[in-house]
Amino acid sequence: MTVGIVSEVAPGERRVAMVPGAIAVLNKTGTQFLMEAGAGLRAGFPDSEYADKGVRIANSRAEVFQSADVVVQVRSPGANPETGAADLALLRKGQALIGFGEPLTALDAARSLAERGVSFLAMELMPRITRAQSMDALSSMATIAGYKAVLLAADSLPRMFPMLMTAAGTVAPARVLVIGAGVAGLQAIATARRLGAVVSGYDIRAAVKEQVESLGARFVVLDVEPAGAEDKGGYAKAMGEDFYRRQRDAMGGLLAEQNVVITTAAVPGKKAPVLITREMVERMAPGSVVVDIAAERGGNCELTRPGETVEHNGVSILGPVNLASTVPYHASQMYAKNIATFLKYLIGKDGQLALNREDEIVRETLVTHGGEVVHAKVRELMGLAAPQAVTGV
Ligand SMILES: NC(=O)c1ccc[n+]([C@@H]2O[C@H](COP(=O)([O-])OP(=O)(O)OC[C@H]3O[C@@H](n4cnc5c(N)ncnc54)[C@H](O)[C@@H]3O)[C@@H](O)[C@H]2O)c1
What residues does ligand 1 touch, defined as CB less than 6 Å away? Predict the structure, then answer.
């Protein structure tokens, strides 16, 4: 089986889906790799390092699409609205594609992949079960985003993070609040703590209290959190507007005490909840910084503009997008390990891809197959009938 590695063509994307170090995961499977020249360069992986691992360098991007049984990408067409259509045209019937693809929102891309007869496996849909943990690319990327968000905040803040006692007086530590203590939030808390800030964490899911405290941060309770705010996948459930209003009322005072607020609150497949209003920002001290990691999902702050920094009454509101791509070396390393582990899981005894749709990991991630959209949730969003029960390949 040949796996194709191509350059990422989404604007500003610096990651690559496979790195030389992750190839060893597939050593005993007989898998061959074919790569577009320079695919890993922007992430810090030159062609020579791939060649050392036995990867063949193709003459063109088109050759990779032509020859590969499976193409691995970071941003497949659904996650690349700007330039992804060109790749759609290169994909072939019977070919498999693995990558991020915004399957719950980019429905047109899923339709096109089905029409082309591609078997598309979306990394966003990896189930949150223990045996899939090493394939969970959303967690890998969230780890990077949480880390980088703190660095952006520290860079924008007109203060230092740590407490310092110097001959020129004492410098008070920065006060940092992290809203949403999932994977990104916990990493943000850990990073802000390492820089010496006084950190608080808040989440609608009370279950994360111990994790927040184990990182040396205070867990904030607003007394509005309902029981059962968590679904069976460990994600937050969407709440009614009445809840979000009460939550904002309770949070206003807390926000006014912070130098930095990092927001990471997301609900899968939905627009991010607005947790910080304009009025709440106006209560914050000038020089404070909000970093809204949920910017791509619509933002947790009313004033966020994705990809921009908004100044409002002296408060900076950063809406970074694709933070993982700003740390491309380690983002690619982690993503590639997730992809390689996933591929190994999917490869049958004969060395070919075996998509057993009775298996939970395959069923949950497989969006299109055999000319159809097969994923139950995606079909539901398209208004299609539930998929027929299937057996085997
Ligand atoms: N394999 C596994 O078992 C596995 C893998 C990865 C993550 N997880 C768990 O899943 C959970 C969520 O992961 P995630 O980081 O991808 O989540 P996410 O990116 O969907 O959301 C980030 C955080 O925002 C919180 N949030 C949502 N609405 C909120 C609101 N109104 N107010 C405050 N906070 C709000 C969520 O509870 C979550 O903790 C975590 O507990 C994580 O440990 C499990």
Answer: 128-130, 133, 136, 138-139, 142, 179-185, 202-205, 208, 234-236, 247, 264-268, 273, 275
pLDDT of residue 70: 98
Residues 135, 111: contact at Cβ < 8 Å? no
pTM for the whole thing? Answer: 0.93
CA 265 to chain centre: 13
Which one of 47, 111, 211, 235 is the catalytic residue?
235
Distance CA 189, CA 185 (A): 6
Residue 8 scores a pLDDT above 70? yes
* Residue 262, beta-bridge partner list: 178, 291
Instruction: Give the list of residues 6+ apart from residue 371 with CB closer than 8 angstroms, or none.
Output: 114, 115, 117
* DSSP states of 62-92: HHHHHH-SEEEEEE-GGG-TTTHHHHHHH--
Tell me the CB-side half-sphere exposure of residue 106, using CA atoms within 13 A: 24
Q: How far apart are CA 110 and CA 125, in angstroms?
A: 13
Q: What is the CB neighbour count within 10 angstroms for residue 321?
A: 13
Strands (E), the chain: 2-5, 32-36, 56-58, 70-75, 96-100, 119-122, 164-166, 169-171, 175-179, 198-202, 218-219, 260-263, 289-292, 309-312, 315-318, 366-369, 372-373
pLDDT value of residue 75: 98
- Residues near 229 by Cβ (< 8 Å), separated by ≥ 6? 204, 205, 206, 236, 237, 239
Q: Write the CB contacts of 340 (distance below 8 Å, at least 6 apart in sequence).
A: 18, 22, 23, 25, 26
Catalytic residue, from 128, 194, 283, 357: name it.
128
137-156 and 183-194 are packed helices; what angle lies between their axes, rounded to 10 degrees? Answer: 40
